[in-house]
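Support case: user asked for a sample of complex input and structure output to validate their parser. Sending the pair below.
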Amino acid sequence: MRLKLLPSVLILAAGCAAAPPVQSHFIHTANLFPADGFITQRAVFSTHGRQFPLNGYLAVSETGGKRLVITENFGHILADVLVKPGGKVFVMQSSRAFSPKDIRLGVAADLQCVFGDATNLNCPVEMPDANHFIIKRHGYSLDLRIVEVKPGAQPASLFDESKAERQ
Amino acid sequence: MNKFKYFLVLAGVFAAGSVLAGPPQTLLDLQKKMAGVKSVYLEFSQERVLKLFSDPLKSEGVMLVERPDKIRWETTAPYQTILLGNRDSVAQFEFNDGKWEKLKLGFPQLLQRVMQQMSAMNQGDIGAMLNDYTASVATNTDVVLTFVPKDENARGMMSSLEVHLPPDLSTTREVVMNEPGGDLTRIMFKNEKRDVAFPAGTFDQAKPLAIADVKAAVNHAP
């Protein structure tokens, strides 16, 4: 069976990324994560009663921005996105599971909600504990756990938008 | 290349270490060695090497296979997840907040197919492997079996698959999946045990036995 339905549900989900918050108990804590570092995450993406486990690998740089790579169970890259400090989004790699639109409207928005400068007005995020975030949007939810945080400068090449997919 | 093909290629990674056939002789020897194996227990360390990141993405876990069709692939660090499969079904569990949660998997048929192939190939079902790959053998301190996908689309996903074994083919030391752009996945195995009797519940898709209990049983087996 092909995964052709997955893009549909993700598109559906991503299309709702800018929807009003359903519920929010999230007070953005700017100092929760290091300004420069590498953050490993495990998440379960839920939509229409189905769940998809994902891994997230996020490099953050105060000057360079945020580079997030999302993989599935076996390590295949599903999405790769760069968000510059000013908020500009560059899709570095998309996939059949996550189209450029999914990444731009869904993944990048959620990234900014948890790790960025977005205010809780735009971010329906619950934070049950310091390492656990739940994002609930119309059409999907993301249960995100921080697995590991390694502070330290990241290679500048990670934040070079010149290798992005054609926008 | 679609994701389904990716998983088929990936299934070959896990299979190749244990079950291969056809010329050269080393492959025949390995096939013969594995043909009578009823179960396999393996602990693994996995490194996902992406050129993008300076350090490899590391994980650890355990793979268990039991004839005729049961398989358990469990990641124990840095997060905990269990994949269970057999001919009829597949299940995945995530460990959070001190308890296991069974996922309502999207597209379970796809995962089931992958798990089924991993299991079948570990038990000597090699037809698909040699149909899909060109095999070669190099012998030095290790025996290195190299498989190159015949299909061009598959090569776009994985340029080659290497399986490293000792000269007596008694265990699978390492599997490396090379990708065209230079990224790779390296799975290093240790503590392989063959023909172990897994305790009840090891492959239970409703409530799998804790891996600590499985390990205890395996390590105390005569």
